[in-house]
Amino acid sequence: MDENPKQSEQFLKLLMLNDRRIYAYILTIVPNSNDADDIMQEVSSVMWRKFDDFKPGMDFAAWGMTIARYQILSYFKKRKGDKLHFDDDLIDSIGRKTIEALPEMEDRLRALKKCVKKLEDTDRDILQMRYEKNFTLQNIGAHLSKSTRAAYYALVRIHRNLMHCIRMTMAEEN
Question: Which of 6, 62, 144, 153 is 20 to 30 A off residue 40, Cα-Cα?
Fold first, then answer.
């Protein structure tokens, strides 16, 4: 693609609006987040190089997911020696189901964000330690001056409260 500032800006805007959907698609098929991150980087690079092929009116996310599909297939071909191997039909099936589920997933994510904001600061800190900082339950317990078991039960309670809140929020919105 030729360097055109307006085109670059358009690409970045579309990518920023759709990258989570494309990444969610990748992550449903490639469960290792490090591998999914690498694939997303490659997908973004390919999309940039092929942006001249993208025409106004096309669904950018669907276009990106098509490119992602080929990158995922390449990923699995490189890893043929692995015990786990998906055939092309299964990858297509997972991809279709993911695309169908994306609107509900986005609604759930919006509800989750609202619900997390409603949590007590301590509960938000526990979630952050576990899911952003990748603390083990033992580390969380030590940080809170509690046992590993207490950290586990705190996470169970937080998850239960979030699930209830998400259900209630989605019911109110529908």
Answer: 6
Cα dihedral 82/87/90/95 (nearest 10): 80
Tokens linked to 22: 């494309």
CB half-sphere exposure, 118, CA atoms < 13 A: 14
What is the CB neighbour count within 10 angstroms for residue 5? 7
Label residues 21-58 b or e (16+ Cβ within 10 Å = b). bbbbbbbbbbeeeeebeebbebbbeebeeebeebeeee
144 Rama sector, left if φ>0, alpha if ψ -120 to 50, beta otherwise: alpha
- CA 73/CA 149 separation, integer angstroms: 41
The pLDDT tens digits for 7-38 are: 888 999 999 999 988 998 898 888 788 899 99
- For the entire predicted model, the pTM comes to 0.56
H helical segments located in the chain: 5-29, 33-49, 60-78, 88-118, 121-127, 137-143, 148-173
Residues 6+ apart with CB under 8 A from 91: 29, 69, 72, 73, 76
